[in-house]
Design goal:
five-stranded mixed beta sheet, 13% strand, 550 residues, two-stranded parallel ribbon, 21 helices, alpha+beta, binds zinc ion
């Protein structure tokens, strides 16, 4: 599962007319700036992506501009997948703020507002973006050959009007050629043999539409400091079928100190599994301690991952065959998390938390909780205790939100237990509790349509009922109750682990409908955040100059 925290995907599914993206004309000449555009832009706080380049070798530093160039080619390819002709769109927009907003969104549709068009005269976004012909209906594509469903093809009409699949390597030959060239130049500089091999295989993968071998090579390399995630990867942009992979690139530098700390925590997984507050039957599986979990600073975001809301943790590769053979790698993007922490979490806490508790909101606690969320996905069980099959199958559309809720609460539980045993450096237990509470407010803003958003809503109401926090009606602020927090954490952990172990679909549905919606008091509190102009997401200043490489 990918933890991309994308917004409001389901809401737009199936609703959109299949009208071409190029219908951005007629060009309008606004007399004054669209007043709503300033508001839209203010949702994004600017953050500079940097890291300590002093930790890199000479050849690693020389690789960075090449990898950034390769990533830029993904930017160009993603524009074509999401919208069409980038230059034509930007040239057609007279207002500079609107133009800037189109760059952030990779098109004329607002990704934070259910893809509503924000450029005058633009039609609704096609659900299938540019992966399918503008005039093709869902039924027509479904009726056509299965080959059209490939991850790495776009669907076009041939001369006779028949639907055909065109491989990405052909459809995006120019962009792919640029990326492959730069990856090979970087490979020539790489001292780490694993990295050299991966970069060469990845260049070839782009040219052949066959990524498996390069995915394997990526998981096999362990000692590299510089890294790049590049290619067609996630399928969120194809809201018609979720079948087509969108181009993206992340240029990364591994945080060796944090990665070592993470490897240390993985040792405690079995012990934590045994200590879960449920009967034996619900914890008899062996936790996945072999997962490869590392922290990184991102130096460059390109394409899909840079469009609208920014990803701060990734879990790859998506190829299930590779997952079965080699597992996955979880990447925690530390400087991007810092960006969201500074821009969003701190101001949220400043509005909604009791004044004397605000000092307990710390970046270390936020980072640790995000990290332990990932580790906690490995706890609990994947199969129902009656042997019926997987928890995922049993819980159907409830599965994702419950699994996210599990990872959040067990992650906090792990933090508390490791802290009590003196195994967790830095911070107090109060820091973790209060930062966690602030994190709930940050996440419920994503809305109940999003798995993470709904999980947070359930937790909010569950904690409220258990008295883990109290709301002061006069100030409208919330105060964590340190005494009652542990019992609330244990109760919610038990509740979720039992629902999963029992494969209790009706129970999961009941929990979600009982506690997964926003009530008027919370809605009003969240509205105060919007009115105060607290950003929803971040946008990056990035590249060679920001890094001082030019
Ligand atoms: Zn997760």
């Amino acid at each position: 599962m990918s933890h991309s925290c994308r917004l409001a995907l389901a809401a737009t599914l199936g609703l959109l007319a299949t009208i071409g993206c190029d219908s951005t004309t007629p060009r309008q000449e606004p007399k004054e700036q669209d007043p709503s555009m300033e508001k839209r832009l203010a949702q994004y706080k600017t953050f500079r992506l940097t890291t300590d380049l002093g930790a890199l070798s000479e050849s690693e530093r020389k690789m960075l501009p090449l990898l950034i160039e390769a990533a830029r080619a993904m930017d160009a390819a993603f524009w074509r997948q999401a919208y069409g002709d980038r230059e034509a769109l930007l040239a057609s927009i007279a207002d500079p703020l609107t133009r800037r907003y189109a760059e952030i969104n990779y098109g004329p549709w607002d990704r934070l507002a259910d893809d509503e068009p924000f450029v005058p005269g633009v039609a609704a976004k096609p659900a299938g973006a540019r992966f399918y012909p503008a005039d093709a209906t869902k039924a027509e594509i479904e009726a056509a050959a299965a080959e059209l469903r490939g991850l790495y093809t776009i669907v076009e009409r041939d001369g006779t009007g028949r639907l055909v699949g065109v491989p990405y390597s052909r459809a995006f030959a120019a962009e792919i050629g640029r990326a492959a060239t730069k990856l090979r130049e970087a490979a020539a500089l790489a001292d780490d043999p694993g990295l050299k091999r991966y970069l060469e295989l990845r260049a070839r993968a782009l040219e052949t539409d066959d990524y498996r071998e390069s995915d394997m090579a990526w998981l096999e390399m362990k000692d590299n400091v510089v890294d790049i995630v590049i290619g067609p990867i996630e399928t969120y942009e194809d809201q018609l079928f979720g079948a087509k992979a969108a181009f993206e690139g992340y240029v990364l530098v591994k945080d060796l100190a944090w990665s070592a700390r993470l490897a240390g925590y993985a040792k405690w997984l079995s012990e934590l599994q045994r200590a879960l507050p449920v009967p034996e039957a619900y914890k008899r599986e062996t936790p996945g301690s072999d997962s490869d979990l590392n922290a990184y600073d991102v130096l460059y975001y390109a394409g899909d991952c840079n469009a609208g809301s920014k990803t701060i943790a990734i879990n790859l590769p998506n190829d299930e065959e590779v997952q079965l053979r080699k597992g996955t790698r979880r990447l925690q993007l530390k400087n991007a998390m810092r960006a969201k922490y500074d821009a969003i979490l701190v101001p949220v806490a400043g509005r909604l938390l009791a004044e004397d508790q605000r000092r307990h909101v710390t970046f270390d606690a936020f980072f640790a909780e995000t990290m332990f969320h990932e580790v906690a996905h490995g706890l609990g069980i994947k199969n129902t205790i009656d042997g019926r099959g997987t928890v995922r199958e049993a819980l159907r559309e409830q599965a994702a939100a419950l699994e996210e809720g599990k990872a959040d609460i067990l992650g906090l539980d792990m933090v508390a237990k490791l802290h009590a045993q003196g195994k967790l450096e830095g911070g107090t237990l109060e820091d973790y509790y209060v930062t966690f509470l602030a994190g709930i407010f940050r996440s419920v803003r994503f809305g109940a349509a999003n798995a993470h958003g709904r999980a947070n809503m359930v937790r909010f109401h569950f904690f409220e009922r258990e008295g883990a926090f109290h709301r002061d009606a006069v100030t409208g602020t919330y105060r964590a109750d340190f005494e009652r927090m542990p019992a609330a954490i244990a109760a919610l952990s038990e509740k979720i682990l039992r629902l999963q172990g029992d494969g209790d679909y009706a129970g999961a549905q009941a929990l979600s409908s009982e506690m997964g919606a926003i009530d008027p008091t919370l809605a009003a509190d969240l509205e105060r955040l919007g009115a105060a102009g607290i950003p929803v997401d971040v946008v990056f200043e990035q590249g060679e100059e920001v890094l001082g490489l030019r």
